[in-house]
Amino acid sequence: MHNVLKLQSRYLLGNFIAALSIMNGTVNAKDIVNDWENPDVLGINKRSYHATLIPPSKKKDNASVISLDGIWRFKWSADPEHRPVNFYKDNYDVGEWDSIQVPGNWQMQGYGIPIYTNINYPFAPKLQMSHHRIFIATVIGIR
Question: Most buried pick, 30, 47, 61, 75, via CB within 10 A?
Fold first, then answer.
């Protein structure tokens, strides 16, 4: 916070001096550089720098870090028409949903078709799926 106030003070002082110089005729208005063109202005009303990451060795000691690892309730649907409706509501019953391991890939846990390639398939897949269809199938895996 101290750096922000310091930067704001310098900014205001610089503008004040520039205004006085223009009024006295010692500096032309065209010689004044806009803040976004001035390399000395790194930020105005900006928070001071801080680290937002926690080293892996310190995560267990930090109460604000919550692990998402574990067993999650999961529902897979073949298409959007068969998805569960209102699953996001607090009173929705997920008792009949399956469980999957997180972290994990739900396609590798028996849901959908696992597809990975960084090149074209050397053969035609048994099931033709467009990129749009793959996206829809991905969206339908609900936790």
Answer: 75
Which helix H or strand E contains 73, and what residues bound it? strand 70-74
DSSP reduced 3-state for 122: coil
Q: For 57-90, write each residue's pLDDT tens digit.
A: 887 788 878 888 999 999 998 888 888 988 889 9
Which letter does DSSP use for residue 47 in this model?
P
| Contact indicator for 140, 80 with CB cutoff of 8 Å | yes
Nearest to 34 by CA among 25, 21, 44: 44
Give how far Cα 106 sits from Cα of 83, 88, 124, 136, Å.
16, 19, 23, 14
Task: Tell me how crowded residue 100 is: count the other CB atoms within 10 A of its CB.
Answer: 20
